[in-house]
């Protein structure tokens, strides 16, 4: 990820990637047929890991989400989101590399259909997780769930990039949850709670 963050996907040679990972060129090609396969595997592995963390956070919070309506919705959402973010301790290099990977997939015509298919599957899983969390809280989205997820994803991406800006690549970024909390507090209706 650090090589991608510094050099971009196109600028990173297979040798540099192998050296940073501690593998030989032969080991690379025994696992990946091309740079594009590595990029897709990276997306799949990282997203799967991040979604597993979100799933675990929702399960940890299940009882609190099920309990009676909190008096301070924004405070409750802040605590939940900060707890969720604290589980994913991304470095500045990882945040930058994730953006590089997405841009690479968007500008590589042969890769984009495979990227879009992978993204579609991941969005379905995110939707399921968010539906569970909202359901546990007995709340409802005031906009279509797909739009809510798109808004949250965009805010998370921008918050991550702001947190990574000007940092050393090895530094862990601290994401500010304020924007996400504001959006959720306005786009979720908690009045359905008994």
Topology:
Elements lengths: L1 H10 L2 H8 L3 H7 L3 H26 L1 H5 L6 H15 L4 H16 L4 H25 L3 E2 L3 H20 L13 H10 E2 L5
Antiparallel strand pairs: 1-2
Helix pairs in contact: 1-7, 4-6, 4-8, 6-10, 7-9, 9-10
Labels describing this entry:
194 residues; two-stranded antiparallel ribbon; single chain; mainly alpha
In short:
By secondary structure, the chain is mainly α. The chain is built from ten helices and two strands, in the order H-H-H-H-H-H-H-H-E-H-H-E. It has a two-stranded antiparallel sheet with strand order 1-2.
Which structural class best describes the helix and strand composition?
mainly alpha
Quaternary arrangement of the chains shown? Answer: single chain
Report how far apart the termini are.
47 Å
Radius of gyration: 19 Å
- Give the beta-strand count: 2
Residue runs with pLDDT of under 50 for 5 or more positions: none
The biggest beta sheet reads: 2 strands, antiparallel
Q: How do the SSEs run, as a string of H and E? A: HHHHHHHHEHHE
Strand arrangement, largest sheet? 1-2
Q: Report the mean per-residue pLDDT as an integer.
A: 90
Provide the number of structural domains. 1
Helix-residue proportion:
over 70%
Total DSSP helices: 10
Describe the structure.
The protein has 194 residues and is mainly alpha-helical. It has one domain (35-189). The protein has ten helices and two strands; from the N terminus they run ααααααααβααβ. The protein has helices spanning 2-11, 14-21, 25-31, 35-60, 62-66, 73-87, 92-107, 112-136, 145-164, 178-187; strands spanning 140-141, 188-189. A two-stranded antiparallel ribbon has the order 1-2. α4 (35-60) crosses α6 (73-87). The longest helix is centred in the N-terminal third of the chain and has 26 residues, at 35-60. The chain is elongated. It starts with a helix and ends in a 5-residue tail after the last strand.
């Amino acid at each position: 990820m650090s090589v991608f963050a510094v050099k971009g996907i196109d600028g990173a040679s297979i040798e540099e990637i192998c050296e940073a990972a501690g593998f030989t060129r032969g080991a690379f090609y025994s696992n990946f047929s091309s740079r594009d396969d590595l990029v897709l595997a990276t997306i799949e592995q990282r997203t799967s890991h991040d979604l597993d963390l979100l799933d675990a956070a929702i399960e940890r919070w299940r009882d609190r989400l099920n309990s009676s309506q909190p008096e301070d919705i924004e405070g409750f959402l802040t605590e939940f989101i900060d707890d969720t973010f604290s589980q994913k301790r991304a470095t500045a290099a990882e945040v930058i590399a994730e953006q590089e990977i997405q841009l690479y997939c968007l500008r590589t015509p042969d890769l984009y259909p495979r990227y879009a298919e992978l993204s579609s599957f991941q969005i379905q899983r995110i939707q399921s997780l968010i539906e569970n969390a909202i359901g546990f809280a007995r709340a409802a989205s005031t906009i279509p769930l797909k739009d809510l997820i798109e808004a949250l994803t965009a805010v998370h991406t921008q918050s991550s990039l702001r947190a990574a800006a000007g940092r050393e690549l090895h530094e862990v970024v601290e994401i500010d949850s304020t924007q996400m909390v504001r959006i959720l507090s306005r786009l979720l209706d908690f009045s359905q709670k008994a």
